[in-house]
Amino acid sequence: MVFYRIYGFRGSENLLQTDCETERLFLRLFQLADAKSVQELAGHEEVARTTLSIPHPYPDGAAEAWIERTRSATEIGTIYSFALVGKENNELIGCVSLRVSKTDNQAELAYWVGRPYWGLGFATEASKRIVVFGFEELGLNRIYAAAMTKNPASYKVMSKIGMKFKEILPKHILKSEVYEDLVLYEMANPNLLR
Fold first, then answer.
1. How far is CA 109 from each of CA 13, 60, 103, rounded to the nearest angstrom?
2. Which residues are CB-contacts of 72 (< 8 A; sequence separation ≥ 6)?
3. pLDDT for position 179
4. Contact at 8 Å (CB) between 136 and 144?
5. pLDDT tens per residue across span 30-76
6. Residue 88's domain spans which residues?
7. Number of folded domains in the chain?
8. Which PANTHER family match (predicted)?
9. In Å, what is the CA distance from 125 to each residue of 14, 53, 174?
10. Residue 149 maps to a domain
11. What is the mean pLDDT of residues 163-176?
């Protein structure tokens, strides 16, 4: 249940592992072979509509470019994006990631799950695991997450994993030519509160 071979920002130690698992999921780095599934799942209109930055329609070639960018960012310790792969069928289900601010020793949690897998608890399961990774492996001080207020399923995940409501940010992002309100949740590293 530890990560390795990702270059952590604590120094040059190779203390992290790229793969881990939960009860129903394998979490691993994305591979170029995942690009078609990423485009299909993330690009679904309902998925794109509920996320902060996924476009619809999802352009050809964008998944490959995104995978390459996130793998490069993982190597320098600024983004850790993991594919959620079902143990039962070995199929891509979604993504969970931490976008790390080394300066502030904190990260933004983000996730998406393909439409066929909504309501099954995969986002909660993966997010719980990635929070442990962030606090225990990366030594982060704080993890926060944001969702559009029109996406209560997303901020229910935040609450279920122990995050606390912080604030609503009115008209904070422009999505599909509409300014959307965001809800912000956060949690501090319990190991650093002692």
1. 23, 26, 17
2. none
3. 96
4. no
5. 999 999 999 999 999 999 998 888 988 999 999 999 999 999 999 99
6. 5-143
7. 1
8. GNAT FAMILY, PUTATIVE (AFU_ORTHOLOGUE AFUA_3G00765)-RELATED-RELATED
9. 26, 22, 29
10. no
11. 95
Residue 36 in tokens: 């078609």
Tokens, residue 8: 């952590």
The Cα–Cα gap between 28 and 46 comes to 25
Asked if residue 69 is part of any domain, the answer here is yes
| Joined tokens for residue 27 | 């979490």
| Residue 162 falls inside a structural domain | no
Domain of residue 99, CATH code? 3.40.630.30
Residue 107 DSSP label = E
Helix 122-132 vs helix 152-160: angle between axes, to the nearest 10 degrees?
Answer: 50
**CB atoms near residue 125 (< 10 Å):** 20
Q: What are phi and psi of 43, to 5 degrees?
A: -80, -5
One-letter amino acid for residue 106 of the chain: Q
State the amino acid at position 122 in one-letter form: F
Give me the numbers of helices (H) and strands (E) for the chain, helices first please.
Answer: 5, 10
Q: For the segment 68-81, what is each residue's pLDDT rounded down to a tens digit?
A: 999 999 999 999 99
Say if residues 95 and 127 touch (Cβ distance below 8 Å).
Answer: no
Residue 78 inside a domain? The answer is yes
What six digits make up the tokens of 94? 């979604």
